[in-house]
User: Which sequence fits this backbone?
C-alpha cells in the first residue's frame, strides 16, 4: 500500500510523515521524527532541529522533508481556498568542516494569542481569519528578519537572494515594504505558479530557482515564514558549500 506521508491525508490518524518516508526510502537505521503544528513555518522549524541534531547529537546528515496536501481540508465556500496548493520538497543539512557554517542565523517565535486564526472546524475543513493574519504577519516577519540579520552579523547587502513565504502576494508586498525591498530583484517568487503550499513554500521555491540556475552553490539566502499558532521566524543560510569560512559579511559585489 502507498504510505500516507501527509498529516492532512485522509486516514492518517497519527499525523505522521517521518516514519512512512523512512520506510519508503529504506533508511531504517536513521533516527526520524516529525516537526508538526506550525504549518507554513515548518521548514524553518525543522531546519533549526536539524542544526541542533548536527551540533549536539553528532549527526552528519539530516534530511528535512516537507509535504502538503491541503485538498481534504479546504472549504471552497471560503474564497481564499483557491490560493492553496499541494506539493513536496526536501533538503539535506550536512555537518561542515571546522570553521564552516552554512546556517548563519535562525530566529523562531511563537504567540498563541491568535491560535484560532487558522483552525479546523467541526466539519474538518479549514477556517482562516485572513484579516488577523494580514494585520500581524508583515510586522512580525520584518522584525524576525532584522533579528536574523543581526544574529548573522550581516546586512541586506550581504544577501544574494530573498525567499519569503509564498502566502499571498499582498502579504509578500507588505513585508517587502516593511524591509524597504519592494522592487528588489533578489526577491524570488513562485506563488503565481504554485499558490500557498504551506511548509513546502520556502524549500519548493528554493528548489525551483536552484534547478533553473538562478541560485548557485555558495549563494547567501534570506528567508522568512509565518504559520499556524502564530509561529514565525527567519533564517539566513548559504546554499551548498560556503564560498569562504568565517562570518557572513563580505566585500560588496
Assistant:
Amino acid at each position: 500500500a502507498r504510505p500516507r506521508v501527509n498529516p492532512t491525508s485522509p486516514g492518517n490518524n497519527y499525523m505522521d510523515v517521518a516514519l512512512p518516508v523512512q520506510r519508503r526510502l529504506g533508511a531504517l537505521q536513521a533516527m526520524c521524527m516529525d516537526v508538526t503544528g506550525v504549518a507554513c513555518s515548518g521548514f524553518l522549524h525543522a531546519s533549526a532541529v536539524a542544526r541542533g541534531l548536527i551540533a549536539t547529537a553528532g549527526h552528519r546528515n539530516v534530511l528535512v522533508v516537507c509535504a502538503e496536501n491541503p485538498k481534504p481540508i479546504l472549504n471552497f465556500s471560503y474564497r481564499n481556498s483557491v490560493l492553496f496548493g499541494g506539493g513536496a520538497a526536501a533538503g539535506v543539512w550536512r555537518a561542515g568542516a571546522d570553521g564552516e557554517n552554512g546556517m548563519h542565523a535562525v530566529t523562531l517565535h511563537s504567540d498563541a494569542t491568535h491560535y484560532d486564526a487558522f483552525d479546523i472546524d467541526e466539519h474538518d475543513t479549514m477556517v482562516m481569519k485572513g484579516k488577523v493574519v494580514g494585520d500581524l504577519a508583515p510586522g512580525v516577519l520584518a522584525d524576525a528578519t532584522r533579528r536574523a540579520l543581526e544574529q548573522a552579523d550581516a546586512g541586506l547587502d550581504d544577501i544574494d537572494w530573498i525567499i519569503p513565504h509564498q502566502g499571498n502576494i499582498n502579504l509578500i508586498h507588505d513585508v517587502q515594504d516593511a524591509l524597504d525591498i519592494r522592487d528588489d530583484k533578489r526577491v524570488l517568487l513562485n506563488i503565481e505558479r504554485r499558490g500557498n503550499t504551506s511548509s513546502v513554500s520556502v524549500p519548493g521555491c528554493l528548489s525551483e530557482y536552484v534547478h533553473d540556475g538562478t541560485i548557485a552553490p555558495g549563494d547567501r539566502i534570506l528567508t522568512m515564514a509565518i504559520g499556524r499558532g502564530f509561529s514565525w521566524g527567519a533564517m539566513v543560510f548559504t546554499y551548498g558549500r560556503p564560498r569562504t569560512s568565517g562570518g557572513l559579511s563580505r566585500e560588496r559585489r
